Amino acid sequence: MITCHLMGGKFETQVCQDFDEISRSVDAHREALAEIPLDAIIKVLDALGKRVLNNPEINTLPGVSYISLWLRRENLDRVCRVNYSDKRYLDGFCKNEMNVLMMAQPRGVVCHWIAANMPTLGFFSIVQALLSKNGSMVKMPEEYLPLILSILRELPEISVDYEGVTYSGKSLLDAIAIVTFEGKSVGVSEKFSLAADCRIIFGGSEAVRAISRLPCRDHCETIIFGPKYSFAVFDRGYIESDGFKRALDQLAKDVAIFNQMACSSPHVMFVEKSLYSTEAIASWLRDAFERLPDALRNQEISSGLSAKIINARARYLLSDGKNCIAPRDLGWTILIDQDVCLEEPIQGKCIFIKEITSVDEVIPLVNHKIQAISIGILDQVKREAFARQVTYRGADRIVTPGTIHDFTLPWDGIMTLSRLVRWVILRSN
Amino acid sequence: MMPNSDPFQEQAGLTRDEMIALPPYSQEDRHKNELLLPIIREQLKIARCNNQQIDNYFSRLGVDIDAIQRLEDVPYMPVQMFKYFDLRTCPEHEIVKILQSSGTTSGTPSRIPLDKATALNQMKALKSILSDYLGEKRKIFLVIDHEGINSPEMAFSARTAGVRGLSIYAKKILYLLKEEDGKLSLNMPVIQEILENYSHEEVYAFGFTYIIWTIFYEQIKNEGIRFSFDDFTLFHGGGWKKMQELAVSKEMFSDKIAEVFHTQPANILDFYGMAEQTGIIFVDCEFGNKHVPTFSQVIIRDPLTLEPCEIGKTGFIEVMSILADSYYDQAILTEDLGVLVGVDDCPCGRKGRYFRFVSRVEKAEPRGCGDTFRESSR
To answer: B316 near B295, Cβ under 8 Å?
Structure first.
């Protein structure tokens, strides 16, 4: 069964047998979207960011204030420039360095499979489709529908003037459809996949594999944001610097946001041998966890995850050469050992601390499953050398504590907007 | 470090032997806790001395055994740790048997080392519990399983534990199922023998809930067989997750099985127990509540705060016991969810806490796009 929650600008819940009507609607309305100058689209989105921040029904929800920041015109401008090199390509043919007229045309209808780990993920995916002037059919996790629909409800209220023309947020909304359906239903999933000119897939290993195998049209582009792993590394100089304790506050936040369910959530913290023992560093991190706001420190977890955390704690408490620092409740857990390796994620704010003699010991551990490495290395030459090595081996993002979840492009090594358009040419006479 | 005589006695308290000898549901909860605490404190000291891992555990948790004032503050051991650590608390030479759970869920069996005293305590405890439900008289024991389940070569499982444990009241054991090529079916010659020779005997039976329903009940219904005994009690346990998948409630199970044995549903008794705490089973009373015997305690812990839950709130079942000298069974945190129904006031008259089993904990797979660091193979 397919339930459509938004189509053609109307927020009406209706049951559909297939995606024909929905994709026809998105396809028809995306033409109007394609006619809007990119700067006007950015202006509408900037206004949307301000509106959500002023909406008391949603502005306190997790991630909404970040959406507002991210939608600022300067940020969207930068995102587009980084992806397209020149924003003008989106609005018409421009001469490139090869003396050819080139333009970025939208791919068409983008079908999004949104993972159930991050409430605002679907929104970021939609915005990227808008910034590339594509129509969107979004399969949204049921639990995140209210938030996403509340944000989108603000769009028709927005109108902006750009170069003497008034543009309405409704034109953007019309090109978006939100659906829910049982992902395990192969028949429905196949129909959804076949409706796409481009597929964006977010999810864990099993979901990504299953969706990737679905039939799609020959020209369909597939952009996968698959399962990834992240961790943190600090060198001696950084640990002994004044900023280290502040960085631990940031690290605690990085661990706590999304309760370690995101691909950008760190699971291990490697610390180079320094003046401070691992136990001392762990005690500072403990204090940082305890300073977290209530909403981050005390997040709901399943009883299965509770059992997993309890077992991990007990294994470390019982073992020789290991230790565990944790409160009486399951708010957070620090697991200490000396094995220089990555650990299977536990989630629920469980971080492993491991002492290393040099940050270089971490390099061989990196592979293509590593998304982000949060580094604390003060020396710029050492930072870059480390970054070159780990990115060569597969890591996508080398970031600083506190910025690991910042949604910047490229993400997972992908310039998403650039992939969401077809680069077309017109040779001059 | 192990003393020869029972050391677990404090002034104004009872020894462990005296506790085990008490009628199993005779003590009010508060009084029972006062009796259990000094015994457990002494057991913890010995456990700590005899096991480096347990000493690590206590040290890192900052446990001062003498300062423990409530059973709730006794450090609990997650049940999975029996798979990964030797939790023996007596000298190795005193171990006479190591129970191994079948490890059907994880593939890794739990190892539970027993010395003579522990094995004897477990037997006494189980006898005490069963006597409350069956009386003192020996009876015919029907096992709704195949005979091989009790062979010494079989790995220790909940099924073997049940058969071996419950057989202490048996004057004769009869197996109602047989196994051929790995398949279970009715053991017709034995069933015929029962129908002909034991119809007016006092009988008790044991079986694994899921096997009773899917094999025994299905086949006995098809054969149109009904038993009739003078007195009948069935103890059954385990497999409720599968039964839930089959949409069979406890009530439906009891009604249908009672019909087969021509008895009241109140005589079909579900129980909760585990290999890691052999000797103690928590049996349903006629009001469907599981009761905690004198030598044991149950705490329901909130899955997030791990603090004891109030009545009516679901949490992890922690089981406590004073039976073992040979391994850490003083406080075991299970991966089962239960709910405390009440204390000292069950209409059945049994004193102490009473609870209900809710479900096994669902295994947690990593959620979201966070994943293993391991690359898939090329």
So the answer is: no
- Could you tell me if B209 and B301 lie in one domain? no
CB atoms B369 and A227 under 8 Å:
yes
- Domain limits, chain A: 2-226+412-426, 229-399
| Total number of domains constituting chain B | 2
Residue B369, pLDDT score: 63
With an 8 Å Cβ cutoff, are B78 and A307 in contact? yes
Query: B305 and A318: CB-CB below 8 Å?
Result: no
Q: What is the pLDDT of residue B156?
A: 60
Reference B317, options B86, B88, B78, B81; nearest CA is B78
Q: Phi and psi for A294 in degrees, rounded to 5?
A: -50, -45
pTM: 0.89
DSSP string, A235-293: -HHHHTSTTHHHHHHHHHHHHHGGGG-STT-EEEEEEE--SS-HHHHHHHHHHHHHTS-
pLDDT, residue B5, reads: 47
- CATH number where B335 lies: 3.40.50.12780
Per-residue pLDDT, B207 = 92
In a domain, B127, yes or no: no
Judged by CB atoms within 8 Å, which residues 286-325 of B form the interface with A?
303-307, 316
Whether residues B251 and B157 share a domain: the answer is yes
**Do B114 and B155 reside in the same domain of the chain?**
no
Which chain B residues contact residue A320 at CB under 8 A?
A: 52-53, 56
What residue ranges of chain A have pLDDT lower than 70? Answer: none
- Range A229-399 classified under CATH 3.40.50.720: no
Q: Say if the Cβ atoms of A204 and B77 lie within 8 Å.
A: no
Average pLDDT over chain B, rounded to an integer: 89
The set of long-range contacts for A5-11, using a CB threshold of 8 Å and a minimum separation of 24, is: A5/A140, A5/A145, A5/A149, A5/A178, A5/A179, A5/A180, A6/A149, A6/A152, A6/A173, A6/A176, A6/A177, A6/A178, A7/A177, A8/A174, A8/A177, A9/A156, A9/A170, A9/A173, A9/A174, A11/A149, A11/A152, A11/A153
Note the ipTM here: 0.89
Give the gap in angstroms from C-alpha B339 to the nearest C-alpha of chain A: 14
Mean pLDDT of B233-257: 88
**How close is the nearest chain B Cα to the Cα of A6, in Å?**
25
Determine, for residues A345 and B374 on separate chains, whether the beta-carbon distance falls below 8 Å. Answer: no
User: Nearest-CA distance from A190 to chain B in Å?
Assistant: 22
Q: What is the pLDDT of residues B253-309, one digit of tens each?
A: 999 999 999 999 999 999 998 889 989 999 999 899 999 999 999 999 999 999 999
Residue B12 has pLDDT above 60, yes or no: no
- Residue B220 domain boundaries: 137-272
Say how many CB pairs under 8 Å bridge A and B: 143
Q: What digits encode the pLDDT tens for the residues A104-128?
A: 999 999 999 999 878 899 999 999 9
Check whether residue B302 and residue B195 sit in a common domain.
Answer: no
Q: In the structure encoding, which two tokens stand for residue A271, read together?
A: 């610390």
CB contact under 8 A, B369 and A229: no
Q: What CATH code is assigned to A2-226+412-426?
A: 3.40.605.10
Classify residue B83: in a domain, yes or no.
yes
**pLDDT for position B4:** 43
Interface test with B, best of A261, A265, A306, A332 (most B CBs within 10 A): A306
